């Protein structure tokens, strides 16, 4: 491979890299894999056919970034398979190519070091992605999980309940007259109320139960291994001890349920409870 061909491939990779930066998250997975394949061809060409040591070292330094990229954007299985093919092609060409960059028994330890370093780079990518995903699922004000976290955890718990035929309850909690708190006492007091209610919910349930803030003043309790009757007993007890009044609605997992269908039923039940409490308050005046 001539230096001219290497230069063309380098320009192609740089162009695609710029395109990927512009597209951001809208870049398709297929396009990303095409970029990885192009980079693999370029890397194999440099390590297998050029005698420029500095250029070869630069290519090796780029490979961990490819490993992190795959770990960040792709499912674990896809990332590992792609990285295996990518690294195998580069190592193979580097051994049999005219430059012989990795030729000879004395350099096999370098191959092992490269493979181990790429594997560690992928694990770093996985760890980084899990950390960011976890941070994105935590509500910064109350410390409980967010609506995004609800979708992830609820889908997992629904699948688990269906697999083992165990009950799963979904509870919606909505603060009463919360707008009045913000209007009369200010948003700082409103934040304190939200934080206090979230803390009461979080510390009053089991470690296997999950608490989410899914709206301004709306929370969800996800209760594995809990029937609707058990959930009702728990929530009534929590409401009787609450620092701020709230209404609630609950439902139990049914065959064919999704996160959305359970949320709709629980919301409907909660609005009925809120209307009933409002009517009782009006009649009591």
UniProtKB/TrEMBL annotation:
Pfam families: GGDEF (PF00990). Its EC number is 2.7.7.65. GO terms for molecular function: diguanylate cyclase activity. Signal peptide: none annotated. Keywords: Membrane, Nucleotidyltransferase, Transferase, Transmembrane, Transmembrane helix. SMART domains: GGDEF. Residues 166-285 form the GGDEF domain. The chain crosses the membrane at residues 6-22, 31-50, 56-74, 83-102, 108-128. The keyword rRNA processing does not apply. NCBIfam families: GGDEF (TIGR00254). This is GGDEF domain-containing protein. It comes from Populibacterium corticicola.
């Amino acid at each position: 491979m001539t230096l001219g061909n290497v230069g063309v491939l380098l320009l192609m990779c740089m162009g695609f890299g710029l395109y990927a930066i512009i597209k951001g998250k809208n870049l398709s997975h297929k396009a990303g894999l095409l970029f990885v394949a192009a980079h693999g061809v370029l890397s194999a060409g440099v390590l297998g056919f050029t005698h420029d040591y500095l250029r070869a070292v630069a290519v090796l330094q780029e490979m961990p970034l490819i490993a992190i990229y795959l770990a960040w954007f792709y499912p674990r299985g896809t990332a590992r398979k792609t990285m295996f093919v990518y690294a195998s092609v580069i190592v193979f060409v580097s051994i049999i190519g005219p430059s012989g960059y990795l030729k000879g028994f004395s350099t096999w330890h370098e191959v092992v070091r490269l493979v181990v370093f790429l594997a560690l780079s992928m694990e770093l990518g996985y760890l980084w992605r899990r950390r960011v995903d976890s941070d994105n699922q935590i509500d910064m004000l109350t410390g409980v999980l967010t609506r995004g976290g609800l979708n992830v955890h609820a889908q997992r718990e629904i699948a688990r309940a269906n697999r083992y035929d165990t009950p799963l309850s979904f509870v919606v909690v909505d603060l009463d007259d919360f707008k009045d708190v913000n209007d009369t006492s200010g948003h700082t007091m409103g934040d304190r109320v939200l934080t206090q209610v979230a803390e009461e919910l979080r510390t009053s349930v089991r470690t296997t139960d999950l608490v989410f803030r899914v709206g301004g003043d709306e929370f969800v309790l996800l209760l594995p291994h809990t029937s609707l009757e058990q959930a009702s007993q728990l929530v009534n007890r929590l409401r009787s001890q609450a620092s701020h009044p709230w209404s609630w609605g609950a439902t139990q997992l049914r065959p064919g349920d999704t996160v959305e269908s359970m949320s709709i039923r629980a919301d409907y039940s909660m609005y009925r409870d809120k209307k009933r409490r409002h009517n009782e308050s009006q009649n009591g005046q």
